[in-house]
Amino acid sequence: MSYSLRLSSRVLQKSFRFALQTCTCQQHGLHTSRTQKNKEPEQEGKGFDLKSFPVDSIRNFSIIAHVDHGKSTLADRILEFTGAIKKDADNKQVLDKLQVERERGITVKAQTASVTYEYKGQTYLLNLIDTPGHVDFSYEVSRSLAACDGVILLVDANEGVQAQTVANFYLAFTNELSILPVLNKIDLKNADPEAVKDQLLTLFEIDPDEVLMISAKKGIGIEKVITSVIERIPCPAEKCNPDAPLRALLFDSWFDKYKGAVCLILVVDGTLRKGDFVTSVHTGKSYEIRDLGILTPQERSIPQLFAGQVGYFTANIRSAKEAQVGDTFHQKGIPCEPLEGFREAKPMVFAGMYPMDQSEHPALRAAIDRLTLNDSSVSINIESSAALGQGWRLGFLGLLHMDVFNQRLEQEHGAQVVVTTPSVPYKVRIHGEKALREYGEEEPTITNPIQWPDPQIIVETSEPMVMGTIITPDSYLGAIISLCQDRRGIQHNLRNLDQNRIIVQYKLPLNEIVVDFYDHLKSVSSGYATFDYEDIGFEPSSLVKLDILLNGIMIEELSTIVHSSRARTVGKRICEKLSNTLPKHLFQIAVQAAVRGKVLARTNIKPVRKDVLAKCYGGDISRKMKLLKRQAEGKKRMKMYGNIEVPREAFINILKR
């Protein structure tokens, strides 16, 4: 009896250990039986055998266009036509997966989809990348082009060539990519395809006979687009070598809370398999490939990726610093020359970002780290403020980029933040040994007004300039020229695009266009003008630091950098805003804007009046005068010794846009 009980307990213990082992293996993606292990590759590769796609049957291409010219709609029709998704009237913005993209109707993040298409008896693998159209997300476009051999240049047949169309064309042209011109929305009654073809011929010397005409919304001409991609965009055979050791270019990444960093790569040389160990050229760290796959557009695991193919892998990468976009991965123990990546993003707009409550600082830091893994064009520097506490100084490519980043923080991570007024970087040339020791270089870049050097050690100041391209109907030219001149613009070029439209180029200070220039441009042109700009470096300029004083005490957090000709106007506007925002005290508060100690603008916040005569029901007038005199003396002493405490809410209202 005792023996049978002991035997039963041993059997139960073994069964419990086996169940525990099975559960643990399943959590880590392992298999406990040989049968399951052997079946795994068959299940992953079923219906999508990548061995049947040699390099010459692969096409890597992206869609580039101006905002709202139909990139996402064309991507939807291509996915439907190739069978990647079912034909459905609800298929709108399939590749726009972010909530902010669907709400705003714009593409923010470049998305990839791999589809197959049979043409003339051969099956082709088409790797499609849908890119953003706004100038603020041009870095997404440049990253996508690094993994492509050609592009579809999409132009609206109704609106014609726009400013971002010009910028995207030259971006693809300088990358030596094949360009397939396509006119969209030919079904609209106001469409004028022949006039737009003439614009393409005038600007880009594109033969009108090579231009395809489609309607992405109605599905007209989609098959011709796909066959033209196969015929006119080259395969990646020239830059890929299947027999060489592994080299893969990381051109995008995002964060998954279960898998960590998901790396989107182009396999340039060799073959990448699940279970391989790869090494990063940038960090030197090695990782085991846990999962490998392609986007169809959903994530689909496959056993291996060959040269010329675009796919993703996960390797338990948990830090954003270990997934640097533009990095090269190679086989562990087989070093290689790093691939030529692409230019680093240069932030154009800087803003402070602080949590609404300092107790939320760790959670906000984690959220920013995850978003910057998804968007590597954002720069981060730690910053602190006496009014707002610990925070960060973030650099963005533009104002829309900053708004989208803030909106994604709120929607995807539930973070409530305070974003200060955006500013641009400046360069200051200084002299003196003490100044050089403090700043570390002779010409430091200043991104925060608090860092502005003492005027006595400044030799020269410079501000960033951009070359702006505006395309507008000729009837609005006068108003647009006035707007550019008011923003200290210098005209460089002006020519006719066709009979009714003009393209004009202005050299403009970045500080003058970063906040509200685009809104004013749309206002004076009734929404018809389009604007694009590119950085052309720093130029010397007369810049000063505008200080804000409350009763003679400088408030560093409210300081700003302005051009000397605008100091009085900007100072007056800030003083008026402060006088309407700050709470009243028992004494008068003088709000002043000063440059180098000279007051340029001033407003007064009137004191809260206490009725000291309320207890006087009559009597001699001298009694009333005595009380009023005593009150005035008390207010005078209070003004001398009283502290002006600016509440956090007032700072938020003043600093945020």
UniProtKB/TrEMBL annotation:
Pfam families listed in its UniProt record: EFG_C, GTP_EFTU, GTP_EFTU_D2, LepA_C
Q: Tr-type G domain location, by residue? A: 56-238
* One Gene Ontology term of the molecular function aspect: GTP binding
Q: Where is the composition biased (Basic and acidic residues)?
A: 37-48
The principal location of this protein is mitochondrion
Q: How does it sit in the membrane?
A: Peripheral membrane protein
Q: Which reaction does it catalyse?
A: GTP + H2O = GDP + phosphate + H(+)
UniProt cross-references to InterPro entries, sorted A to Z: EF-4, EFG_III/V, EFG_V-like, EFTu-like_2, G_TR_CS, LepA_C_sf, LepA_CTD, LepA_IV
Q: Name the EC number(s).
A: 3.6.5.n1
Residue numbers spanned by region Disordered: 29-48
Q: Which UniProt keywords apply?
A: GTP-binding, Hydrolase, Membrane, Mitochondrion, Mitochondrion inner membrane, Nucleotide-binding, Protein biosynthesis
Matching PANTHER family: TRANSLATION FACTOR GUF1, MITOCHONDRIAL, TRANSLATION FACTOR GUF1-RELATED
Q: Which family does it belong to?
A: Belongs to the GTP-binding elongation factor family. LepA subfamily. Belongs to the TRAFAC class translation factor GTPase superfamily. Classic translation factor GTPase family. LepA subfamily.
Listed NCBIfam families:
lepA, small_GTP
The protein's name: Translation factor GUF1 homolog, mitochondrial
This protein's species is: Penaeus vannamei
Q: What is the lineage of its organism?
A: Eukaryota, Metazoa, Ecdysozoa, Arthropoda, Crustacea
